[in-house]
Write a structure and sequence with these properties.
By secondary structure, the chain is of the alpha+beta class. It has two domains: 145 residues, no CATH class; 93 residues, no CATH class.
Length: 280
């Protein structure tokens, strides 16, 4: 079973960007390499294509070991020896970028490149391709609607709520339209809010505005976390970056996961449903 995930990217830059598609392509080029511990990461096979008049960018993010030592048998001596393998691929994952909605469709590898690691390394590579020059990319999960609010409603007591929001590009939902318009009016790229109570007996009251901020986060325009006492009486922290309730699609068996056009054709209805959430 091959599962495709949906995330939304947010780019903050001090550069004067006249051609956004060209700006994206530069950030997704194969020039940059980043290193973390013993592994390296880079983009490969970047290309753009069209489907039903819309433009997309596809490619792969590769995790590899620049030099890995493996034991091999020397047939001449019949002894085991160490041999160096250069740039051994650990995993490669295809992604498809929809510039019109800022949505990334992508695979994950639970053994070698999990969901949060994918988002972190993808963002770092994009920034590195722009020489880290006044460019910051953040990638947020797209959750099922009301996912975070449903989880926080099960808490007996909420002590702390942390909210980070990014203004939308280009659309918004009626539920959080006023919040988004305020961010744009005040020229705020990233909004952060903390609600906290020291009251040992009473919980934070979640009003309509806070609930709407949760919904904005569910749509991929931010991240939220909450700490408190859950239904079982345990002290617990929940957040939107966990792997639960993420919007995803299981590819049909006849779809080749290496063919971007085939992937997109098979999930286009789900993509449109996500986009419609911010057209209401």
């Amino acid at each position: 079973m091959v599962r495709l995930f949906y995330s939304r990217y947010h780019i903050s830059t001090g550069q004067n960007v006249e051609d956004k598609f060209k700006f994206l392509k530069k950030g997704l080029s194969n020039q940059a390499v980043i290193n973390y511990r013993k592994y390296s990461y880079k983009f490969i096979d970047i290309e753009d294509f069209k489907l039903s008049g819309s433009s997309y960018i596809t490619g792969e993010i590769v995790k590899y070991n620049p030099e890995e030592i493996e034991k091999v048998i020397d047939e001449e001596t019949d002894k085991i020896k160490n041999e160096s393998i250069i740039n051994k691929v650990k995993t490669k994952l295809r992604f498809i970028v929809d510039p019109s909605s800022s949505i990334i469709m992508h695979f994950i590898d639970n053994q070698n490149l999990q969901l949060n690691a994918f988002r972190t390394n993808f963002s770092k590579l994009f920034q590195e391709n722009h020489d880290n020059f006044f460019v910051e990319m953040t990638i947020s999960p797209i959750k099922e609607q009301y996912a975070f609010y449903e989880k926080i409603r099960t808490f007996k007591k909420v002590n702390k709520i942390s909210i980070t929001l990014f203004r939308s590009n280009p659309n918004f939902s009626d539920r959080w339209k006023s919040i988004d318009e305020r961010l744009k009016k005040l020229n705020i790229d990233t909004y952060k809010e903390i609600q906290e109570t020291k009251d040992k007996h009473n919980s934070i009251v979640i009003d309509d505005e806070t609930e709407n901020k949760f919904l904005m986060s569910d749509d991929g325009y931010g991240e939220c976390s909450a700490t408190g006492i859950d239904a079982k009486g345990n002290y617990k922290t929940i957040n939107t970056r966990d792997n639960k309730k993420n919007v995803s699609s299981v590819l049909p068996e006849n779809v080749n996961p290496d063919k971007a056009m085939d992937i997109l054709k098979s999930v286009v209805e789900t993509l449109q449903e996500i986009i419609k959430r911010t057209l209401k």
